[in-house]
Fold:
Amino acid sequence: MGEGMNVRGLFRGFGFALLLTAAGCSVSTADVTSRGADTQTGGGDAAPSPSPAAPGTDGGAGDVAAPAQTLPCDVSQVLETSCQSCHSSPPQYGAPMPLVTYADLMAPSHSNPSLPVYRVVETRIHDDAAPMPQPPNPRLDAADTATLDSWVAANAPPGSGSCGAVDAGAGEDASPAAGLQCTPDTTLAPASAWSMPQTTEDVYVCYGVELGLTSERQVIGMAPHIDNHKIVHHMLLFQADSAVSSTPTACSAGGSLSWRIVYGWAPGGQPFNLPPTVGFGEDGSTHYVVQIHYNNINALAGETDESGFDLCTTSELRPNVADVVAFGSMSFTIPPHDTTDITCASTWTNAPVTMFAAFPHMHELGTIISTSDDGSGGNGPSTPMGSQPTWNFQDQIWFPINATVNTGDVIKTRCAWDNTTDSPVGFGQNTEDEMCYSFTMYYPKITSSLWLWPLPAATSSCAPTQ
Ligand code: HEC
Structure:
């Protein structure tokens, strides 16, 4: 199964799992904030139980409620540092459950209610295809991995209950805009709020923004502007050839063939600062489209959202105007129930440029995408131009590259897919179609009227990857 399909399969499973989990949660009302006296531990022998009859809660059919069980401090620390930016209480960015209290870890998991959450945690921190923390966040280091591994191996015993100041709290912010080196002056927002249906787990929504500029200016920084952290899963910013309605409307996950990606954000992703001498051009012909993937995994009622992007702009034009080009391919077919792995070559016929950011893009059957400049005539040396060795449709971001592409250089993009469906799949904009685009930001902008941003992808020649 392709990874994207796994994610979608998981989403489908959640609806069913919700009932069970809700039941599980209401039983174990344990609350980490009562972290006073405790511990009936007795070295790791205590088998954890999702039921209120917790280990060590001896008889005393009685009056006094058992003290809430708490997480061991080292485990709690790892979750706080690496997981709670999404798995807070309530969870954010489409994460299905909090990872804050001992009870959270003992609850039945969403994807497989027969397994407690801590068992699924053990699986996902070692799952190279769908790791937690999810990219672009760094994987756990060896020490933190060992902390969770040995706790799970000991059957997840409760801790002693006194860890000092543990912040059990909700809403630790992944503070998406931190790291922007400028002050935003323009917000791309919808004309009206999107109302998230309670019964829809997963939807892509698009809206257009017209700035109505009368003179040229430049964007020098971009950051996500997240209104409702509970339901926003990831966001992409496109430029379109013509205006798109400013009312948020459900749209294809694939966007449109005439849209090119300008910026994207997934939880943990960074704002985008253009290099000091470079600005991304904007004028009266600029049409933006914001695409947001919403995820209402916990079936919350009455959620609305007006997320978009914050831009820093300047009318004091920087010497280098940046633009976006697409490498890859627009012509391929992946046979049903088969994998395809192609490498597509395109010769750079323009004047030399500097490529400084890459945004690989495929749809949900994609498994690998990577691009390199293989030098004059393809004879090397090879310069990396962005690679997602385990492609995940849910985690699309720009990342920095540094390549000087000279006239005559051969740019190669490798794309691989796993077609788990019953039909052949080719290039297209619908969710069930595929893509092989490495959007790349470069300067100086090519000004020829014969130039179009998808030309390198449209004219490349592909062969099976060696
Ligand atoms: C940047 C946000 C983010 C971070 C950080 C993050 N997660 Fe997740 N997690 C998610 C999202 C979104 C999902 C649901 C999609 C999926 O399963 O891939 C998820 C799903 C999971 C699941 C699957 C639950 C199930 O029922 O199948 C587990 C387990 C999990 N995360 C554990 C962790 C652990 C442990 C950490 C920290 C070491 C962590 N996550 C860090 C966003 C995050």
Notes: The chain has three domains: 3-153, 186-318, 321-464. The domain at 321-464 is CATH 2.60.120.230 (Jelly Rolls).
